[in-house]
Design a protein that fits this description.
The chain has one domain. The two termini are 17 Å apart. The chain contains 8 helices and no strands. The protein is 78% helix and 0% strand. It is mainly alpha-helical and 144 residues long.
């Protein structure tokens, strides 16, 4: 078998592990206290007024993120090749990059409303952008 096909794509491996860890965090958000939900930008009103719907949404979002992680691991040659691998990985990469580009809106909000103390949102956007770049490098390597 061609070694380039079976060689681990370390970028997609890292991206996949990040997505799986984030999926676990997202599902775990069901049990977060309201002050942490506010800190992470979640819908605390939904959690307090309709906890069943909140839990369902956390599970669905967590499952979607986990699927993205499994696709990245498949692209890293750590799982069996999944259908539409390249298409899904390109979509996941775009989503992470777009979420990361939200950093500019976060910075504008911080400068216009310094009393809001939203530096953590800038950090979240920066993390998403970095993961998007890591995915992008991994996808480019996958296409070679």
């Amino acid at each position: 078998m061609d070694q380039s096909i079976t060689k681990t794509n370390i970028y997609l491996l890292f991206g996949g592990l990040f997505s799986l860890a984030f999926a676990v965090f997202q599902i775990g958000a069901i049990f977060l206290p309201p002050d942490l939900i506010v800190y992470f930008g979640g819908p605390v009103e939904l959690q307090t007024e309709n906890p069943t719907l909140y839990a369902f949404l956390c599970l669905v979002i967590g499952a979607i993120i986990a699927i993205a992680g499994f696709y990245a691991l498949s692209g890293a040659c750590k799982l069996h090749r999944l259908p539409f691998l390249r298409t899904v990985l390109v979509a996941v990469t775009i989503i992470y990059l777009l979420r990361g580009l939200h950093i500019f809106l976060d910075i504008i909000s911080m400068s216009e409303h310094p009393e809001l103390n939203i530096l953590h949102f800038v950090v979240f956007s920066l993390i998403a952008f970095c993961v998007g770049i890591i995915h992008l490098v991994g996808v480019i390597r996958l296409f070679k």
